[in-house]
Specification:
Two copies of one chain form a homodimer. In chain A, 67% of the residues lie in helices and 0% in strands. Chain A is built from nine helices and no strands. The radius of gyration of chain A is 19 Å and the shape is elongated. Chain A starts with 20 loop residues before the first helix and ends in a 9-residue tail after the last helix. At the A-B interface, helix 8 and helix 9 of A face helix 8 and helix 9 of B. The first copy, chain A, binds a DNA duplex (30 and 30 nucleotides) through helix 3. Chains A, B: Residues 20-80 form the HTH tetR-type domain. Chains A, B: This is TetR/AcrR family transcriptional regulator. Chains A, B: Keywords: DNA-binding. Chains A, B: It comes from Prauserella salsuginis.
Chain lengths: 212, 212
DNA sequence: CAGCAGTGTAAGCGAGCGCTCAGCGCGGAT
DNA sequence: ATCCGCGCTGAGCGCTCGCTTACACTGCTG
């Protein structure tokens, strides 16, 4: 039986706090399976087999297949929000904030492309109530980006036709990385983040790009 | 029973050549259903009901549920390739080519966001052989964009760190529109395409933007 | 030692799935 | 008048799904 260790380069430090160990292995197996085939095409038997357990073991730790997806999705969204918030908080000006935010956001979607695929593309499989929780986190992320773009425009650092549309475009670039990035991609997550940082600042019409 | 006419603003001129009429109605119903809930979460009974038929009617016109997806996906990819090719062929220089390509590519993904969602996000549900056909079309599209970006760099019109990455970014912006655009979005498909044309040309470091 | 909470399994239930099949109605050709 | 073939249907087959149940093992506590 193939365990997690043979299922690709899954970072061992994901969810170090999840207890017991079997629950974390189930989350890792869920991420792997959902990312590869999509939530609806994944069976509880797939997940259990990937985690090296019997199908019934899933229900010892999660009340349903959907609850497993929710645990994965919420955790991922919280990571992204925290990472974006940190970039903005640490930056001295909107241009630096946008650069750092794009670098980290993009690198996260590349390095964690497996979980990112679940986070970005399996949303609508969530039951309504749990979808609401995740949707709220997504709104926070979007507002964060829109606000910093608007601040940059107000400060005369950026020149864009429409701040909302520009913010959407910034997020789109990063999100879409999860769709196409693989471990065989030519650029490392950090290199890609750096490239995208350049592209985005120019896209926003930033006069002078702050150093990375 | 709810027919296609109540299932949202589906353009009537999609696939005017598909015969008989019932086959086209099934494709429209399939697009609607696959876009809303995903291929695997959609049942043949859903599709048939949306098209106003019994479940068995699907199999008069398509050999399988997957074949219906393939018909939709191939047609969509061919439309996108044709539209992109036309933009490049008609343009006098790479900068104009990129602007026109982005405008039309983006506007297509906005106006046809329902079919675009199926085209871009339900790929992996295709059986291997049919996936190959679609993957080939996707490579054509990607090469088209990469080539025109590289030509622009060679002509000194664009300044990018990495042409391949920049081309990916250009496509990403357009593709991701299918994920978030709805009929209630603030900008029309054409307005969005125009905005994105501006953003992309600046992103590519184009010195002077050609008029749209 | 007994009792118990936590963790796991083998077996299988009820439901809904993709798809099949025998046959019906009807317009057009003979 | 008869027949054919296309489009379509009602019924349902075989299968797999998410999930449940009854039970077993382990290690800790009293």
């Amino acid at each position: 039986m193939s365990g997690i260790s043979s299922a690709g380069p899954q970072p061992a430090d994901l969810w170090p706090e999840v207890q017991p160990d079997a629950a974390r292995r189930l989350m890792l197996a869920g991420v792997e399976s959902f990312a590869r085939r999509g939530y609806h095409a994944t069976t509880t038997r797939d997940i259990a087999a990937t985690a090296g357990m019997s199908p019934a073991a899933l229900y010892v730790h999660f009340p349903s297949k959907a609850a497993l997806l929710f645990a994965i999705s919420r955790s991922g969204h919280e990571q992204v929000l925290a990472l974006a918030q940190q970039a903005v908080d640490e930056a001295a000006d909107p241009a630096t904030a946008v650069r750092d935010l794009v670098e980290r956001f993009t690198a996260w979607h590349a390095r964690r492309h497996t979980i990112a695929r679940v986070v970005q593309y399996e949303l609508e499989a969530l039951p309504e109530q749990q979808y609401g929780v995740v949707a709220s986190l997504r709104k926070d992320i979007e507002r964060l980006v829109r606000d910093v773009v608007e601040r940059g425009c107000a400060d005369g650092l950026f020149t864009v036709g429409d701040a909302g549309t520009a913010a959407r475009a910034v997020l789109s670039l990063g999100v879409d990385v999860a769709r196409w990035y693989t471990d065989r991609s030519r650029l490392t997550p950090e290199e890609l983040g750096s490239e995208y940082g350049d592209l985005v600042l120019r896209m926003l019409g930033a006069a002078a790009t702050p150093g990375s």
